[in-house]
C-alpha cells in the first residue's frame, strides 16, 4: 500500500483497465510518484504524466532506484552546465576548469575538478589555491558527487568548508508537463499567462534577477547571462507588471536545456507561473532539437524541490561547493 513517504520514489503500478469475459485486464506503468491523494495518484513516466484513480490500482510498490549515472554522464552534464553559465575569466589545469567572474555566483567563481588535472591531487589543489589568490578571490571548488569524492577527501584534510548540498536534476523534455497543483500550502487558482521569450534581458528582468542574487550586477554577470549561442529570457507580465522570470540555454551539443534564475515576485507566487515559464522554455528548446532539461537546486529549498518533482525532474547527481579556509596571518 502506498504512503506519502513514497512520493518522490520510483514505483510500478498495476492498474485495472477493463474487464473481459468476467476477468480483469491489467496494465503496468513505471515512473516517479509525484502526487498521492485519497482519490488518485500521479506518475511521471517516460511517456508523460499519468493520473490513475486509486480504485483502479490493483497493486503498487516501490522499485529499486535506477543505477547511478556513469562518470562520463556526470562529466558531460557538468560541462553542459558550464557552457550554460560561462565565466568570463577561464583557465585550465589539465582537464580541470578554473573560473572567475567578479564573485557573482559560486558556479562562475569555482574550479570544476572533472578529468585529470595532469599532476598529483595535492599539487592540483595547491595550484587552484594559487590561481584564485592571484586574482584576489577566495578559492572555491565544485565537487560533483560521487565523481569528485577523492577531491572532497583532500579538501576535508585541508579544512575546507562545504556549502549546502545542490541537486542536479534532469527530465526528458518529452515527459515534461505542468504540475497538477501548486507548491505546498493552501490551494489557489492557477493563472494562465502568456510567456514571452526574448533574446536579451530587459531592465525589469535584470532588476528581479538582481533582487534574487543580492547587490548589483557586475559586468561579469552580463557576460554570464548572455554569452551563450542559444539563450532565451522568459518573462510573464501580470497586469502590466513583470511578475516572473527564467533563463534557458541550449548547450551540450544541442541536447540539454539548462534552466535557471526561475523567480516569481512574492505577490504573484503560488499561481502556477513558474511551471508556465519552464514549459515555455521547454517548447522553445524542443523545437530546436533538445531532448533533456537540467537545473540545479539546493536540497534545503523544499518548496522548489517539490515544484520540480511535480514537473517530473529527478536527481541525476549532486555537488557541494567547497571553500578554502582564510589564509593565516603572515609573519
UniProtKB/TrEMBL annotation:
One of its GO terms (molecular function) is acyltransferase activity, transferring groups other than amino-acyl groups. Keywords: Transferase. SUPFAM superfamilies: Acyl-CoA N-acyltransferases (Nat). CDD domains: NAT_SF. The keyword Transferase applies. InterPro entries: Acyl_CoA_acyltransferase, GNAT_dom, Rv0428c-like_C. Residues 195-331 form the N-acetyltransferase domain. PANTHER family: L-2,4-DIAMINOBUTYRIC ACID ACETYLTRANSFERASE (PTHR43072:SF60), N-ACETYLTRANSFERASE (PTHR43072). This is GCN5 family acetyltransferase. The lineage of its organism: Bacteria, Bacillati, Actinomycetota, Actinomycetes, Micromonosporales.
